[in-house]
Give the backbone structure.
Amino acid sequence: ETAEAKLVEAKDEAAQSWWKEWIAIQLQYCWVHYWRNEADLLEERRNRLLPVVEKWGTAEERASLFTAQIHVGLRKSRYCANEQLVSLARNAREGGDLEGSFILGFVLLWARRFEPAIVAFNETFQLAKRAGDVVIKTRAVTYLTVAQRFLHRDEEVAEQIGLARELAMHIGSVEYSGVVLAQEAWLAWRRGDDSLAGEKTAEALRTWEDKASHYPLQWLGLWIRFALASNAGTQAEVAAAAEAMLGTAQMRQPDPIERQLRLVLDPRDGVPDEELAEVNRVVVELAKKYGLL
């Protein structure tokens, strides 16, 4: 806000340099709105940017504008990407910058096109490595592990998670540190180590709760909590995990799962414990089918 105020004081709308600085500030605001889940404000700012970027912007800034539009779509759809978003992501990729390369993989991931997403993340990682961009390297390898998890590729996740942990710590990303912990919890759960899975899940959720409550992909840990609580028969914890996943700031679950989660959260009066346990079991199996567990 201080930078924008100073820029307004020195306003010179005829100078290209003034507009360049204005564009840079507005694009930073776009990221703030995205992380705060302020989709309407993000869309409003993107619309303000559009005519200015068309006149004064570079190819990289145009790609960033595509990214802002994609972020609007992802937030409003709760990470259920459609063909329009995939098309926008391909346009962003044509800009030739690293951000465009990453966003293509990111959108393909939420369009459930996991193999193309893996290819895009691997390409992005190599490009970022050559460019020395540690932030995009971190994003690429982190979401690469998520794509591999959807496909139940335990070995690949295990191979990549150490690098993801190292990079997340290097850039100080609380969000991605939480993802790493949740992925480690998933690996432990998959090999039957419920104790370690519980510890890692609790640490992941605590990490997000304390410093990144806005992070929209907490299902990565919440599904492990749901499965562990279901197995232990602790219905209150099952319901708490279901309620958190149904939150409007979180990624939308597939429709068949959403319906079952609502049954878990609001069962009919007098439903016996064994019937609730069966509902929980059905939900866990659906989550496995969709690659969430």
Remarks:
- Residues 5-10 have pLDDT under 50 and may be disordered.
- Residues 218 and 226 are 12 Å apart (CA to CA).
- The longest helix spans residues 16-35.
